[in-house]
From TrEMBL:
Segments forming domain NodB homology: 243-418
Region (Disordered): 195-224
Keyword Membrane: yes
Composition bias type Pro residues, residue spans: 205-221
Keywords: Membrane, Transmembrane, Transmembrane helix
Protein name: NodB homology domain-containing protein
Organism: Paenibacillus pseudetheri
Keyword set includes Transmembrane: yes
């Protein structure tokens, strides 16, 4: 996962500071970016005091003949996805980061665009006047054209989703296209480098217009419907070997928990549920039901706060309260923890370890919390490589409605389901 920490135009060029979370821990990086991508990101700023997560998977938009990516703005009360155009050079930078994230590499390796000598960048700020002078008029013209085209397409009831950049899904959400910055496409600065043969096999390649090809040799036929994987070691788990897949559900227990469990049982598979502690007392039967049907239950904190903002003692109590609420119902230790928003640092990880838990993250975020229809959620799964995937879902009505089709699709791909212990 990549968190955008700062964006700056220095004498050395355009650059971003990112926080990179991998299975071996957390590190900060300074990366050079091109002027085009800088201006696109800068046009979305400022967002002070909020967390900003960059997508690892830019998408190709054949209509605009350019790449687009997303910036997710999050705080404790809301989450919003913004779209921005980016260059092929920016895409190549992300590919290099993913190559470094090889599961066989267990040390910090700097990609060739790292700038260790550059002074710390300042926080995100408003776009500068120089940019407005160069591109302001062009932006207005292109925005007007985009509005006209968008109105015509809406009139024909054939409007693509703004998140259609992730695949040819149809449905709501196209209103977010107005948040894109409509600047002219600038020729790429560099070509995308070839993907290393030792790239993390659990990650899909960012070929936006095509689904990632599956392994040439499909996994063997299932002899049972799911397996248990015990988390070990000090690394964060966020992926699986080829041929395996995991479903995980955050933010329960809720009124949908039992229904989700019933669907899983009907299809003879299982999933991992990450429950929020302060919801447990209102949904005790749902927790019992989940445990009785051999699903895996983990902690998603006591109150779903961004725990990296909390003090050490506060986090210790937060984890303990959540575990106590769950353990007194299921009568077994809680050993799996997923941090809210995926936010974790060394201090929090130490407290998680103290309470005999392991960190479970994800590598396929359905973003079902912002999608409008079950078909949107299904299309997301259809346009990602399921092999090695840890899918993140939430206990929502549209996800419940989409779940049978999702399971059938994954079973049709002969995926082996797993749960985490």
């Amino acid at each position: 996962m990549i968190e955008l920490l700062s964006l700056e135009h220095e004498q050395a060029g355009y650059q971003i500071e990112i926080g990179l979370t991998r299975d071996i821990g957390y590190a900060r990086r300074m990366l050079i970016i091109d002027e085009f991508t800088y201006e696109q990101l800068n046009a979305l700023a400022p967002y002070f005091g909020e967390r900003m997560r960059l997508s690892l998977y830019p998408k190709w938009d054949p209509f605009r003949n350019s790449y687009y990516s997303t910036l997710v703005i999050m705080n404790q009360t809301f989450s919003e996805t913004l779209y921005f155009a980016c260059s092929e050079y920016y895409v190549s930078q992300l590919l290099q980061l993913k190559e470094v994230d090889d599961p066989h590499v267990h040390e910090e390796i700097a990609v060739d665009t790292t700038l260790p000598s550059i002074p710390p960048a300042r926080r995100l700020r408003k776009k500068n006047k120089k940019w407005i002078g160069r591109f302001g008029l062009q932006s207005i013209v292109f925005v007007c054209l985009a509005v006209v085209l968008l109105s015509l397409r809406m009139g024909g009831q054939d409007m693509d989703r703004a998140e259609g950049l992730e695949g040819p899904s149809q449905g709501a959400g196209a209103e977010r296209i107005e948040k894109m910055v409509s600047l002219p496409f600038i020729p790429p600065i560099g070509k995308i480098s070839a993907i290393s043969s030792q790239q993390d096999e659990s990650e899909p390649t960012p070929e936006p217009s095509k689904p990632t090809p599956e392994s040439t040799e499909p996994p063997p036929k299932q002899t049972k419907q799911y397996e248990e994987i015990k988390l070990t070691g000090n690394e964060y788990t966020y992926s699986l070997p080829k041929g395996y897949v995991a479903l995980s559900f955050d933010d329960g227990p809720s009124k949908y928990t039992k229904e989700i469990v019933d669907i899983l049982v009907e299809h003879e598979v299982a999933a991992t549920f990450l429950f929020v502690g302060n919801k447990v007392s209102r949904n005790v039967e749902a927790v019992k039901y989940t445990s009785e049907h051999q699903m895996s239950i983990g902690s998603h904190s006591w109150d779903h706060s961004k725990m990296t903002n909390n003090g050490v003692k506060e986090n210790q109590n937060n984890l303990a309260k959540a575990n106590q609420a769950l353990e007194q119902i299921i009568q077994s230790p809680i050993t799996v923890f997923r941090p809210p928003y995926g936010a974790i640092n060394d201090k929090l990880a130490a407290k998680v370890t103290e309470q005999q838990m392991k960190v479970l993250l994800w590598n396929r975020d359905s973003e079902d919390w912002r999608r409008k229809t079950p078909e949107d959620v299904i299309q997301f799964v259809h346009h990602t490589d399921p092999s090695g995937a840890v899918y993140l879902f939430h206990e929502k009505k549209i996800t419940v409605e989409a779940l049978p089709a999702i399971i059938q699709y994954l079973q049709g791909k002969n995926m082996k389901f797993v749960i985490f212990k």
